[in-house]
Structures are given as structure tokens and as C-alpha cells.
Amino acid sequence: MSIYKNLLLPRMIEEKMLVLLRQGKISKWFSGIGQEAISVGVTMALQQDEWIMPLHRNLGVFTSRNMPLSKLFKQWQGNKDGYSKGRERSFHFGNKEHHICGMISHLGPQLAIADGVALAYKLKKEQKVSLAFTGDGGTSEGDFHEALNTAAVWDLPVIFIIENNGYGLSTPTSEQYRCTSLVDKAAGYGMDGVQIDGNNVLTVYDTIKGVREYCIKNQKPYLIECMTFRMRGHEEASGVKYVPKNLFEEWEQKDPIKNYENWLQEEGILSAAAIASIRAEIKNHIEEELKNGFVADKIIPDTEEEVDDVYASRTGSAEWLKGNEETASEKKFINAISDGLEQSLNRHPNLVLMGQDIAEYGGAFKVTEGFVEKFGKERIRNTPLCESAIVGSALGLSLEGYKAVMEMQFADFATVGFNQIINNLAKIHYRWGQNADVVIRMPTGGGVGAGPFHSQSNEAWFVHTPGLKVVYPSSPMDAKGLLIAAINDPNPVMFFEHKALYRSITGPVPDQYYEIEIGKAKHIQAGEDISIITYGAAVHWAIEYAQKHPNISVDITDLRTLLPLDYDAIRNAVSRTGKVLILHEDSLTGGVGAEIAAWIAEHCYTLLDAPVMRCASLDTPIPFSIELEKNFMAYSRLGETIEKLMAY
Ligand SMILES: Cc1ncc(C[n+]2csc(CCOP(=O)(O)OP(=O)(O)O)c2C)c(N)n1
How do residues 448-497 score in pLDDT, each as one tens digit? Predict the structure, then answer.
């Protein structure tokens, strides 16, 4: 009976939604009519507190988790009292209380989040699984491969559900894949799988129950291909012209609700009268909830609230560096980072490190050398070569209260995890209030003749993304304190470590655990002629220049954090000399310097005695040959730029 009610509810809601759509009361609708048995059977077979990663046709997941309909209606209308304060459409939202993680439009990224949740269950030794959905179209995405492979290699209790409804928008499966059945792919990952009738709710329910037990007992993932059909267009505006009519006729006969109703009647479980009465009851429920759902105040935008909600607030006290620390040791930049990581691992038993070759090998730069012996393979995790899945897994860990630090082997490789960083990590708190407690370490920069794909400065890509924090230390003391602060910050932090500083820069590093506040610049030295505002390795270029040119009095500010910028420090730097040079290793066009120059022009105009100048690297890819690389680097034009500025 509860299965029947749960199955009927999303169908009847959808039928109502289609009417409301025609009346212009809701904006977009992706129909799951014909596929309900999958969402409902799956959700009912799991425990209420096991995370599900649904997609756009999985209304039955939301209703079977008993989300109040009135609030769902508010969500679909873009109302403030929905699940996303009007910031997200249709099913692009989640809710921690119901253990549902909302999708982003890109589909595939959902899958790796389930890996991270399953990893958390595994580490906590909980008897639980996570479950993620994909369509047949989504199986062609790299994210599908990465997530399944990672789950298999890490022996994670995840259930992957493919809803094979024959089409990805208008693309039939014949143009989507070449294997006979999608479940055949399971073998390639070394996992088991099964293909089932997705239109039979009891088959779905029983299969998931069994597979759930298998995943928990064997600590393994499992792939289930549910054969089904989409009875309406991709979304309501897209029509169904491209689908042969006979398919609709054929699948109409296999309608999951009609068939289950017939079965219930044949078995004498429900009479026709009982069915009519359940339908009437659900209809009334929907009408009632709709009434409540339409009682909603219009959104009055509050800019402050919009901006505030981009980041999660930090709770608990911080242990700032006070300057009177009792003991300090001279350390290389790289050792300061290791120190910060090690102390954080001791401080937070829920902190997990992930990255390629970071365990026994110690990482490409040996930052985590010796960690696996101290903290074990579970917390110091070698990953397969799949940046996107690991960023997604880091987010999944965060859903279950873990902290994750991921090492990009080189900052350049963030490109293959870009979508997860930019669209999942950065936006999730604003979208539905879930934080992403993730730090991504980014060994960055050139100067070591490593060519175009091991030397890039790509911080500006991330500075442009609300929701991220971007930290870029230049000294060993700052590196340790800022890294610890980044790990304590509940938001996603991109932590840039200039590779050329790793072993060339040494400085005093307090031995104790301490934090340096994110978002605060440092005044490196006072001067009267020009102010250099800079960060990273370029701080050392500025210091060196000043030392070699005692005739010029150079004021130097190290930004330390690029998002958020310390505007007070920038204003102070401008006011000290009236002549500003912004210096960075990144290329000129669209670099962080452009943003700072624009801000100074707008806010510090009266303090200026000269135009704001920038010294940056060439607008070319970064070349391999040492001579070409030197020519590329901003450093090679620093002297002439300062002379120009001095001439004003
Ligand atoms: C990365 C990406 N590319 C393209 C799209 C546009 N798009 C949205 S849904 C969809 C088809 C998805 O098909 P499938 O995975 O089979 O799921 P279904 O809609 O059939 O349930 C496409 C191409 C998208 N959302 N994301």
C-alpha cells in the first residue's frame, strides 16, 4: 500500500504540474512520467538517512523522502520559501535533512559526490550506502567513468543507477553508445551489475534491497541499469517529434502505475474502490498543499543577504598567530606546508588527504612524505588519475562532515576538475546552504623550465568565481598559518603554492599550531617613492629589486589572499606613495592586477600621483626554454616598468 501511494503521488503531482505549466504558473518541467517506479523503488529500499544524488526526472525521490509538497511547489515557482530561496530552478537543489544532494545541470558530476559520501560511510564503519542516478546520455560523460572507476578502486559502497529511457534529449541510444547494454560497462570497472525492468516497482525495490546488502557486506559498488521509457519530451517545451509513435504505444502498455495497480487488484490486495479512494485522497492532498504553496510573498531582493549567503560562516574560535610564539624553527617553504598539514591531521581526526601519488611516494614534491606511516592509507589516499571525481568525492566527504584536502599534482591539472570546482564546490552554499569543506592545494607557477602545462599561473580563473576563496602565500610562516586557516574554513579554498619557492625560500616558522587570517594582506616594507602590490613569488622579486636599488624607496604589500581581496591594505598602499605598481607572474590580460587597478582607479583616484601600472607576464602560453621563459616572465620587465613609474 505505501509503495502504491508513493508511486502514484509523483504521477499525480506531475499531471497537475503540466496543467500549471500551461497556465504559466511554473516555468520549466522535466517530466518523469513513465519512470516513477525507479525513483520510488530506489528511495523506499534505502534508509532515510542514506544520501541520494538524484537528477531532473526524479520527483519520486523527493516525494518518497516526504518532503513537504507546499515547499516543493514554492521551490518550483522560484519562491523565497522554497529549498533554494529562489536561487535555483526545478530539481537543482538538495537538502541535508532529507539526505538529498541537488544536481547541477551538468548531470555527471553527481556520481562522484556519491563516492565521497560512501567513503565517509566506509571510514566511519557505518552500514550504509550512497546512491547516484545517471541517464543513458550521462553515461557518455567522463564523470561517469571517473566516478565508477574510483568507487571500484576504493571499494566504496555506492549504488549507481542508470535510467535508460532510450533518449538523451533527442539522441537515441544508438548514437550514444556501442555496447549492447550499458550494464556491460560494469565488468570493465571490475564491479558487478544487473539490468532490470525499471517499470516494475517491485523489481526495482527488491533489487535495490539486495544490492544494498551486497554493497554493505562486501564494501563494493554496484551498477544497475533500469530499462524504462520517457513518456514525454525532454522537457515540456521540446516536444516528441523525434520519437517514433509506436514506442509510445509499446511503453504505454508497460506503464509502471497501471501495471502495479492491475497487479494489486489481481492479487486481491486492493479493490477498484480502494484505488479510487487513494486517488481521491492524493488529489485532495495535492490541492491543499498547492494552496499553501501559492501563499507566498513576492521576493524582494536583499543584496546583502545574497552576497552573505555565498559563503558559509565559520564557527568556533581561531588560533591566530600572535607574534609572541615561544619557539620557531627555520624551515623551507615546502616544510612549512608539510608542517601545517601534519598538525591539521592531528587536530582534525575527520581530515582526509587525497591526491595522485601522495601516499607511499610522498607526492610529486614530497609534501606528504612520511604521512602514510603516521596517519594510515585511509586518510592519506592515493587517487586514480581522475581530478574531477576526486573533487566530487571531496564534496561528498563534506556532506558527511569530513574535511578534505586534495593535492592537484600541478595547478595546471585543475582544468580537468574545473567543473566540479567552479559549479559544484563554489556554488553549493549559495544554491541550497550546503558547505564544501574542501581545500585544493595548487602547486603553481614557472621559473623552472617546465613548459606550458607544468608552469601556469591560473589563479585568476578562480578569483572570478564567487564562492571560492583563493589564498597565495609567499613565506614559510604565512604558508603554514594560511594553510591551517584554509583547512579550518568551511568553504572551498584554492591554496596556491609557488613551486619555485618550495625549496628556495627559508624562514622562521612557529612550531605550534597557528592560523593566519584569510583575506588579510601583509605590509612587507615601508617606502616613500612607489608602492608595489604583489603576491606569491613576485613578492621576492620586489624585495630583491628594492635591495638592489637603495636609491628608490619601495613600499611592498603582499596580498596573501586574492579572494577576498584586502581593500583596506590596497588603499593604504596607494596612500603611502601615490604611485602604484601591481606585479604578478600571471599574464597581463584579465589578471588579478586588472581587477586591482580598476578598483584603485575607482576608489583611490584622489590619492594617485601617477597612473596605476601593471607588470605581468606576456600574454602567451608559458614556454619551455629557459631563455624564452625568462622573457615571458614579468620579472624581466620589472626594472623598466618601475623606471616609467618613477618618471611621473
Ligand atoms: C554537460 C552537459 N551537456 C549537455 C547538457 C544538455 N542536456 C541536458 S539533459 C540532456 C540529455 C540527458 O540525457 P540522459 O542522461 O539520457 O537523461 P534523460 O534526460 O534522458 O533522463 C542534455 C544533452 C547538460 N545539461 N550538461
Answer: 899 999 999 999 999 999 999 999 999 999 999 999 999 999 999 999 99
Ligand 1 centroid – CA 169 distance (Å): 6
Upstream peptide bond of 564 is cis (omega within 30 degrees of 0): yes
pLDDT score of 479: 98
Q: Ligand 1, atom 12: nearest CA belongs to which residue?
A: 168
Alpha-carbon gap, residue 408 to 589, rounded angstroms? 25
- In this structure, the number of other CB atoms found within 10 A of the CB of residue 238 comes to 13
pLDDT of 325 higher than 80: no
What residues are paired with 226 via a beta bridge? 163, 196
Closest listed residue to residue 524, CA positions, set 583, 596, 455: 583
pTM of the model: 0.98
- The closest-lying atom of ligand 1 relative to the alpha carbon of residue 176 is 16
Q: Which of 39, 91, 234 to mutate to test the pocket of ligand 1 (most atoms within 8 A of CB)?
A: 234
- Cell (9 digits) for 205: 525495490
Ligand 1 atom nearest the C-alpha of 105 is: 25
Which residue ranges have their beta carbon within 6 Å of ligand 1? 57, 105-107, 135-138, 163, 165, 167-169, 230, 234
Percent of the chain clearing pLDDT 90 (strictly above) = 95
Residue nearest to ligand 1 atom 4, measured at CA: 106
pLDDT band at 26; cut points 50, 70, 90: confident
Write the pLDDT tens digit of every residue in 533-573: 999 999 999 999 999 999 999 999 999 999 999 999 999 99
Q: 447: phi > 0 → left, psi -120 to 50 → alpha, else beta; which?
A: left
What's the mean pLDDT in 59-87? 95
The alpha carbon of 137 and the centre of ligand 1 are apart by a number of angstroms equal to 6
Q: Whose CA is nearest to atom 11 of ligand 1?
A: 168
How far apart, in whole angstroms, are the C-alpha atoms of residue 159 and residue 114? 9
The ligand 1 atom at the shortest distance from the C-alpha of residue 139 is 15
Active site residues: 454
pLDDT value for 314: 94
Strand 554-558 relative to strand 530-534, pairing: parallel
State the closest ligand 1 atom to the C-alpha of 141, by its place in the atom list counted from 1: 1
